[in-house]
Amino acid sequence: MPQLNPAPWLFIMLTSWFTFSFILQPKLLLLTSTNSPLNKLTSTMKTSPWNWPWT
């Protein structure tokens, strides 16, 4: 069964995992978010009950 042969895909999977884990991930983690949730003000929303006309 050729689909169970790991020879062509195992190397590709390991190479992509290594590339993401050791090269791309540290670079992505260094980026700062421009929309930090710590800078937002906490405000409570005032809710009012809905008056249904048929009740």
Automatic annotation (TrEMBL):
Gene Ontology cellular component list: mitochondrial membrane; proton-transporting ATP synthase complex
Principal cellular location given in the protein's record: mitochondrion
Transmembrane segments: 6-24
One of the Pfam families matching this protein, by short name: ATP-synt_8
PANTHER family for the chain: ATP SYNTHASE PROTEIN 8 (PTHR39937:SF1)
UniProt KW Oxidoreductase keyword: no
Species this chain originates from: Pachyramphus minor
Membrane topology of this protein: Single-pass membrane protein
Subcellular location: Mitochondrion membrane
Keywords per UniProt: ATP synthesis, CF(0), Hydrogen ion transport, Ion transport, Membrane, Mitochondrion, Transmembrane, Transmembrane helix, Transport
UniProt keyword annotation of Transmembrane helix present: yes
Coiled-coil stretches noted in the UniProt entry, renumbered to this chain: none
Gene Ontology molecular function: proton transmembrane transporter activity
GO-annotated biological processes: proton motive force-driven ATP synthesis
Protein name (record): ATP synthase complex subunit 8
Family (UniProt): Belongs to the ATPase protein 8 family.
